[in-house]
Design brief:
It is built from six helices and seven strands; from the N terminus they run αααβαββαββαββ. The protein is α+β, with helices and mostly antiparallel strands. It has a five-stranded mixed sheet. It has a two-stranded antiparallel sheet with strand order 1-3. One of its GO terms (biological process) is cellular response to phosphate starvation.
Length: 219
């Protein structure tokens, strides 16, 4: 019931925004003004994507738990994939990509969604002067992809719990909305790919989530 309440509440915001934008698009003063028309069309697209993101997370977790999640692994240049993903953030996310020679075998959609979830969390839990870094490096036969922030951090006793379905850190000072599925999804995808998922965090000093992937063979 708690999950249903949170899910309904979370979806209500984009639904309300889409309804408002749709009503405005019916207004002749808006439809006749290209700038205002473009604004409300953009709102509809962004909020629709937001709803789809939540729905996809729930479906992917359910499939992973039922062992029906289908992966489509393909050899991918990791720095290129990460760079393309970060271009959507209009410079808000800094990067330090040092794995330009490395390729990994991943499901591109799920790998991208994992990074989206980690970056979204970093932004949510860094309420003041956010500095978010996405870094890559090759260490021997592994590639490490890191998402680091300067946010509120995670208490030591909470760090194992945050990957559980629906778990939210109690009394977090950022007062972040959500229903505790993002990191559960990250863990499910990491396990499905046999990646190592690491976390280093200090309360009040930020967090560093690291994904450790094997380098694909050159063959």
């Amino acid at each position: 019931m708690d999950f249903m309440y949170k899910m309904t509440h979370e979806l209500q915001t984009p639904v309300s925004s889409i309804t408002l934008a749709a009503n405005m698009l019916e207004n002749p003063s808006v439809s006749g003004t290209p700038e205002r028309l473009a604004k409300y069309v953009r709102i509809v697209k962004e909020e629709s994507n937001r709803m789809q993101w939540h729905i996809d997370n729930v479906l992917h977790i359910a499939k992973a738990e039922n062992r029906t999640l289908l992966l489509k692994p393909e050899k991918t240049a990791v720095d290129s994939l990460v760079s393309n993903l970060l271009s959507r953030y209009d410079g808000r996310i800094s990067s330090d990509l040092k794995a330009s020679e490395a390729s990994v075998t991943v499901d591109r959609q799920h790998f991208s969604n994992v990074l989206f979830n980690l970056i979204d969390n970093a932004l949510k839990y860094t309420p003041v002067n956010p500095q978010i870094w996405v870094c890559t490096q090759q260490v021997a036969d592994k590639v490490v992809v890191s998402v680091r922030d300067n946010g509120i951090g995670i208490p030591q006793h909470e760090q194992k719990k945050i990957f559980n379905n629906f778990y939210r850190i109690q009394n977090n000072s950022a007062n972040v909305k959500g229903f505790g599925l993002g990191l559960s999804y990250v863990q499910q995808i990491a396990q499905a790919h046999h990646w190592n998922l690491e976390l280093e965090s200090q309360e009040g000093e930020g967090s560093d989530f690291r994904i450790v992937l094997p380098v694909s063979s050159s063959a």
